[in-house]
Design a protein that fits this description.
Elements lengths: L4 H34 L1 H12 L4 H21 L10 H37 L7 H37 L2
Helix pairs in contact: 1-2, 1-3, 1-5, 2-4, 3-4, 4-5
C-alpha cells in the first residue's frame, strides 16, 4: 500500500486552516472585546501576551503552513492550469487568492507591528510605561486592531469559498 501524499497534505491543510481561522476569530471577536471591556487589567494581560511574542508567534506559522500546503495541493491537483474552469475551480481559486492576501498582509504589515509592540512591551515590563511609551502602545494597539478588521474577513472568505467548492462539487 502506497502512502497518499495528497490526502496527507489535504489533512494538514484543513487542520491548519481551521486552527488559523479559529484562533483569529477567537482573538478578534471574543478576546479583544473582552479585554477592552476589562479596562486596565485587560491592557496588562495584552502587555504580557505582547512580551511573549504576541499572537503572530503562533498565527504566522500556522497561516504559513495553511498557505504552503494549499499551494502544494493547488499545484499537485493541476488547478494552476485551469484556475477558473468551472464553479468548483473558481471558488477554490478565489479562496486561494483571499488566503494568500491574508498571509501577505499579515507578514508585510502585521509582523513589523508585532515586533515593535513586543519590543516596547518588554521595555516597559520592569518599570511600567512612561507617558510617551503608553501613547506608543496605544498607537500600536490601534494599528493591530485595524489589522483585525482586514485579515479575518479575508481568512473567513477563504474558508467559505473553499468549503463552498466542496458543496457545489
Amino acid at each position: 500500500m502506497q502512502f497518499d501524499w495528497v490526502a496527507a497534505l489535504r489533512l494538514v491543510h484543513v487542520l491548519s486552516s481551521v486552527a488559523w481561522a479559529g484562533a483569529m476569530f477567537f482573538a478578534v471577536f471574543l478576546l479583544a472585546p473582552a479585554l477592552k471591556a476589562a479596562g486596565p487589567p485587560g491592557g496588562a494581560l495584552m502587555l504580557t501576551v505582547a512580551r511573549r511574542g504576541g499572537f503572530g508567534r503562533v498565527m504566522g506559522p500556522v497561516g504559513l503552513l495553511t498557505i504552503a500546503t494549499g499551494a502544494l495541493l493547488y499545484w499537485r491537483l493541476d488547478y494552476h492550469t485551469r484556475p477558473f474552469d468551472g464553479t468548483p475551480a473558481t471558488l477554490l481559486s478565489l479562496g486561494a487568492i483571499a488566503g494568500v492576501a491574508a498571509i501577505l498582509i499579515g507578514y508585510i504589515f502585521g509582523v513589523p507591528l508585532q515586533r515593535r509592540l513586543t519590543a516596547l512591551a518588554r521595555e516597559v515590563a520592569a518599570t511600567g510605561p512612561t507617558a510617551e511609551q503608553a501613547a506608543a502602545l496605544q498607537n500600536l494597539g490601534a494599528r493591530m486592531a485595524r489589522m483585525g478588521r482586514i485579515v479575518p474577513p479575508l481568512v473567513g472568505a477563504a474558508l467559505v469559498l473553499m468549503v463552498g467548492r466542496f458543496v457545489v462539487y
